[in-house]
Specification:
Layout lengths: L2 E11 L4 E10 L2 E6 L8 E4 L5 E4 L1 E6 L12 H10 L2 E6 L10 H14 L3 E4 L1 E2 L12 H7 L4 E2 L8 H14 L3 E3 L4 H4 L4 E2 L2 H6 L3 E2 L2 H17 L3 E3 L5 H12 L4 E5 L1 H5 L24 H13 L4 E2 L8 H4 L16 H10 L6 H15 L15 E11 L18 E11 L2 E5 L4
Helix pairs in contact: 1-2, 2-3, 4-7, 7-8, 8-10
The protein binds zinc ion (ZN).
């Protein structure tokens, strides 16, 4: 099989404690060697520009690919095309498709489609309960055998504490995490934005931060009771961060993720030039400055394990309705890296090494996935980053089938040069 050498980049692999200028030799889909001035020996050579960072492939563990059932929003092919364009070599996809991924046939269908598409790796996540209805536990064991790497009723919380307890016990035996969409439905009610000043000012119904954190508290307690691993998805509220930090301090197996929009934006954006912009409607909602700051603090102090996008494509026809009626969610795969560079790295909040930990090392660790490192013998999933590349976000130019982003028109510093999956170059920035 073809050999490929990446020449001249700064290799940053936190898992292996590597940070330095090395060539990387890829052969037969695995990392063969890191070294200085490796001989070319007939290999294809990718000469990297000055300043390029060679990272283990980025992994997004929270993506809605919409197929089967909602192919007008996204397909496995377009979603994974969007992933590689955003620097992600692998994505884990949420089970709230139509039908819900609650049995092996659907998991196998997703894996087949992903293979046909041939862009990024796809790791299906199965539903905790049949139809994610919160009544009866799905066949987690069968689903794991079919290829599911974790379980969640994402889009909804796991309905009852008892069901969550059983799910954690079962998943614990299988050695996989339960991913937790934390929301108390009674507190959320029919809220559409964060409960606070801007909700009142704009006359929109609010969702308090406590709607999230009471569920985080419940499930941290249940992880403690069962000894199993709970992973808190898309954290947004400062009270939730406190609960996770406290859980970690007493040794509970809890991990968590934050989405780029929750450390970038606040509900103040709702009062921007475009009033009632439905591309600012997501669940959990954009919260107030103190919550955004708590997300940043968690990212800086290590409480946050993973940055995941919660990529949630919706067709423009669905978003072009009154704010109250629009679906929750925004696309995120192609804006995550520029936002992390621009808002976290270039502001001095985190190092590039910590960035890679949040986007590659830890996602692999938390979900027990291959990759997340460039040690010899690892799968050759590699992302080449350009910290100083200027990125103009243009919704229309996104590879995702949907264009629902609040970052349209933004100019950000830092982007992706190349995405390599299993030793094959799946994406290169055209001007490189
Ligand atoms: Zn969710």
């Amino acid at each position: 099989m073809a050999k490929l050498i990446l020449k001249g980049g700064r290799v940053v692999d936190p898992a292996a404690g590597v940070d330095g200028t090395f060539d990387v030799l890829i052969e037969d889909g695995v990392i063969r060697k890191l070294g200085k001035s490796l001989p070319v020996n007939g290999a294809e050579v990718l000469e990297l520009p000055k300043g390029a960072i060679v990272a283990p492939g980025l992994i997004d563990i929270h993506v809605h690919l919409r197929e089967p059932g909602q192919e007008h929003k996204e397909t496995i092919a377009t979603g994974t095309g969007s992933a590689v364009a955003g620097g992600f070599t692998a994505v884990a996809c949420m089970p709230n498709t139509e039908p819900v991924n609650d049995h092996a046939g659907i998991t196998q269908f997703i894996l087949t489609r992903a293979r046909e598409a041939g862009h990024a790796r796809v790791y299906p996540i199965g539903a905790v309960s049949l139809g994610s209805r919160g009544e009866q536990l799905a066949e987690l064991g069968e689903q794991k055998s079919a290829g599911c790497i974790a379980f969640t009723d994402d889009g909804r919380p796991v309905a009852t504490a008892l069901l969550m307890r059983r799910a954690l016990e079962y998943a614990g035996m299988l050695g996989v995490p339960i991913i937790d969409h934390c929301e108390d439905p009674s507190l959320k009610g029919d809220g559409v934005v964060h409960e606070g000043f801007y909700a009142s000012a704009l006359g929109l119904r609010g969702i308090p931060g406590a709607a999230e954190s009471v569920m985080v508290e419940r499930d941290v307690s249940l992880a403690e009771l069962t000894g199993a691993h709970v992973h808190i998805a898309h954290m947004s509220a400062r009270q939730s961060m406190r609960a996770v930090r406290a859980g970690k301090e007493r040794g509970v197996r809890v991990t968590c993720e934050v989405a780029p929009h929750h450390f970038t934006l606040t509900d103040e954006a709702l009062n921007g030039p475009v009033k009632y912009d439905t591309n600012l409607k997501m669940n959990p909602p954009l919260r107030e400055a103190a919550d955004r700051d708590a997300m940043l603090e968690g990212i800086i102090d290590g409480t946050v394990d993973v940055i995941a996008t919660d990529h949630a494509p919706h067709h423009s026809d669905e978003k072009l309705v009154e704010f109250d009626r629009a679906p929750f969610g925004i696309v995120g795969l192609e804006t995550a890296v520029p936002l992390v560079f621009d808002r976290l790295v270039h502001t001095g909040k985190i190092t590039i090494s910590r960035m890679i930990e949040l986007l590659s090392t830890n996602p692999a660790k938390v979900m027990n996935l291959p990759g997340g490192t460039l040690v010899e013998g690892a799968i050759a999933d590699v992302t080449v980053l350009a910290p100083d590349m200027t990125v103009h976000v243009r919704a229309e130019q996104l590879r995702s089938k949907s264009k629902n982003t609040p970052f349209d028109g933004w100019e950000l510093r830092g982007g992706v040069i190349a995405t390599i999956v299993g030793g094959r170059v799946m994406y290169t920035k055209s001007e490189v």
